[in-house]
Write a structure and sequence with these properties.
Length: 203
């Protein structure tokens, strides 16, 4: 039985639930229900099957758009890092589907760096109210964020899968089981694009 001071990492679904609860609490949001996860639910599995089918037929961007439509967040993306910079390897903006790329920024200017450095989910419902982001450069621009790491089977960090928005959002709406399934599938697929401008899979 784990001790009271067990430092082992939480299992992925527990870590994501905890991150959602923290991100809501620090923004003053009160959960509507006690358990926000739809783990093992039929809706989650159906959404994942849709993602997988679109991934095979139309590619990664169409597949991620299907995940984005499960929420009211504006953006979904896969971010990668290179030489102190971060940008999207895949970018979907529901308000501008012709936009294929997010801006390249210093890695300190994206919450994705918190996911990478912590090797764990990071969620904020409203960064302007969240004390963890008090000094963060993205605080006034990207107010809502929910990101999880994409990690290969050998433990190599690939990038982040994230929902984000310029307006506050409730992460309670997110299908946590779906996000974990998608991140796992992306890690196994070998189809996550490299950092833009590179032809290898590193970044």
């Amino acid at each position: 039985m784990p001790s009271a001071h067990d430092d082992r990492p939480l299992p992925p679904v527990q870590a994501l639930r905890s991150a959602v609860a923290t991100g809501m609490a620090l923004a003053g949001q009160v959960p509507r229900v006690a358990d926000t996860s739809t783990a093992d639910g039929s809706d989650s599995l159906a959404a994942f099957n849709t993602f997988s089918s679109l991934m095979a037929r139309e590619g990664i961007r169409a597949a991620l758009y299907s995940v984005l439509r499960q929420s009211d967040y504006r953006f979904i993306g896969i971010f990668r890092f290179r030489d102190g910079k971060a940008t999207s390897a895949v970018h979907v903006d529901r308000m501008d589907l012709d936009a294929l790329q997010a801006a390249t920024v210093d890695e300190a200017a994206t919450y994705c760096t918190l996911v990478r450095d912590g090797q764990a989910p990071f969620v904020t419902a409203d960064a302007t109210l969240d004390p963890r982001t008090a000094l963060h450069g993205a605080r006034e621009v990207v107010r809502a964020y929910a990101g999880i790491p994409i990690v290969a089977l050998d433990g190599e960090f690939i990038g982040t899968l994230c929902h984000y928005d310029v307006e506050p959002r409730s992460p309670e709406q997110l299908d946590l089981s779906l996000l974990l399934r998608v991140a796992g599938a992306l890690a196994r697929s070998g189809q996550v694009p490299p950092y833009p401008g590179l032809d290898d899979g590193r970044g």
